[in-house]
Amino acid sequence: MTNINNTPIGASSQTTTPTYTLALNEMIARVENEPTPQFIYSGIKEGSVGIVVGPSKSGKTMFCENLGMSIAAGLSGYLGMPINATNPKVLVLSFEEYYTNRTVRNKRQADALAAVHGNAWMMNYIVATEALPQYISTDSDWKLLADIINSYNPGVVILDSVTRMCKAIEESVVAQEFMRKLRHLGATTSTTILAIHHTHKLFGQALSIDNIAGSRVVSQELDFAIGINRTLTGQRYIKDIAFRYARNDKETVTTFSIDEQCWLNAIREESEVALLAGQDGRRDDSNGNKILAYFRSLVDSNQEGLTTSALESYFIPAQMSRGTLFNQLRKLVTSGKLTKEGDQYKLND
Questions:
Q1: Which residue segments constitute the domains of the chain, with CATH numbers given?
Q2: Which one has a higher pLDDT value, 230 or 8?
Q3: CA geometry: angle at 335 spanning 334 and 337, to 5°?
Q4: Which residue(s) pair with 83 in the sheet?
């Protein structure tokens, strides 16, 4: 017979057994004496495990790289949202991309950041070499990950990607075992884990928990899920999909562009439904949305309008015919989205 802490009754023990339970007042006192976990960014809390998910080529990796460098540099925010990281060290373990191409891109990103914030922060941003395994499949591989993480004691670990860490995540048993290992990795290394995860091609669908491969099992174990999507017309956006520890009542998504230095730049808050509806010609002509997107991309340059010749130079013949362009311009003026004054068109919204 044993007591609640698994010590045999009537037997003395020289070893200390784990304390499996505490009275509520004792647990409250314990937690009050421990550091309070902070929200690092959005719904990502210190010590949590989650994913950035989306289809191929949507911008997931660059989003994570930008966020990681912003944390490493001690920036106060990224894409209009605050950063509050107590540990600025970020470890990026990439299993997919060969280090040369990744480093060329990282240098462009780092140069842009260093121009304003210097380059001392680069010591906080640690990346993988070609010696890192391309696939994580055995217990020794997982132990290697833990050893690498423990050797640096980072605040955030970015893993790219789940595809290289779990071959058959659609199978519930496999997904359950993968998530168990991932959560164990976070717990034993006392870090925050952000894993990049791919969806299937969405073909114009909205991002949701249901899009995540292995969704039922994976979603149950996640502390956060942030989505990156790209519409059929090429518009990229960020969406809060699910948070365990933060409110998730945002009704809009954040559209963004990617500049030549591989940094994401927020454009505006929009309805995901409207964005996806705009890519379907049966509901709203995609060519019209291309024209509106072009006008919106020039807002920050303080350009008041565009002449007919400027629009022709940009859209013809690479994106549409002359007849299509003028037909769409007429529709946009009629609907009130554009105003025409002489030979110049202006955006109304």
A1: 39-277 (3.40.50.300), 286-347 (1.10.10)
A2: 230
A3: 110
A4: 41
